[in-house]
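Researcher: Next entry in the queue.
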Amino acid sequence: MGLIYYDWHINIFNMHLFRNLFLLTLLFLNFISGLNAQHFNTSFLPKKDTVNIYQEMLNDRSDDLMENHPADDIYNNIWTANRLNPYKIPIDSLPDSVKIDCRFFNVPVPGIITSDFGPRRYRYHYGTDLKVNIGDTVVACFSGRIRIIDYEARGYGHYVVIRHENGLESVYAHLSQVLVKLDQNVKSGEIIALAGNTGRSTGPHLHFETRYLGNAINPATIINFYTGKVHSDTYLITKKKSFYYQRDVAAAKKAQTKAKYYTVRKGDNLGSIAARNGTSVKNLCRLNGIKEKKLLQLGQKLRVR
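Model: Structure for this entry, 305 residues:
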């Protein structure tokens, strides 16, 4: 009886062990099948649109674009030779600050500034003009890839746009000759063109721009053109410091919509035009950037308000 009792306990023990092993096996198989089913289902889920992913990346203020994303990611892999600013990213959607690596910089030309970034009579000047002689060599300010080679008869003339590895894009305009090809990779300091006087230009000069996601930044805030070096190895893009001019541009556009113009007729002079439009000759000269002895031409348009 004792032996039978002992064997019975052994049998009970074995039955429990077998049942537990069986249950564990079932749980394991269910776990594996669940993973497979989950993997199978997620492959059919719709993927997020890349533009939405990009907007989330921009709005994540804990994310440092410069350190964690290459230039292609910053620009959402948009690459086109058709437009200078195809990105349509408003200032308000940019992060509060972005670090730009300015090491390995080379000044495009060693010329002096002839015209600063800022407002002009009828438009805003989004770059810095540097004095050159026709045929002077123009070099890439940072390493990057040639995105645009184009010509604008009433604007930039022959010009080149480079997207840089640090996230900036640069513009080189009024060139006499372009020495690089579209999509070509260039190193900082590499010759890309010869300076000139093409397009809307009053004399030989290099019009040079720095942009981030299509939005212009005053090059002089990054570069000391008198020394030919950057102010610092790192430039911090901020909405307040880098895009301060946006409010002025908006105000100028608003004022322009309220402007009034007069077309010069036979027998007109500045005095008669001023009297007819309730203003002064001095104000006409200021609004139009002319002198009081300026000879008027038939059909010429003058701003009177």
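Model: The domain at 101-252 is CATH 2.70.70.10 (Glucose Permease (Domain IIA)).
Researcher: Noted, moving on.
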